[in-house]
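Chapter review: from sequence to fold.
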Amino acid sequence: MSEIITADILGLTALIGILLLVQSSLTKRKK
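The token string follows.
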């Protein structure tokens, strides 16, 4: 169980990181 939960947390963290990178890149392009 713990392993599955950890995998989910890592997946969510990766998605959040990608979203942040996309937002930063978009804001830089707009500027």
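Two observations follow directly from the output. Residues 5 and 11 are 10 Å apart (CA to CA). The mean pLDDT is 90.
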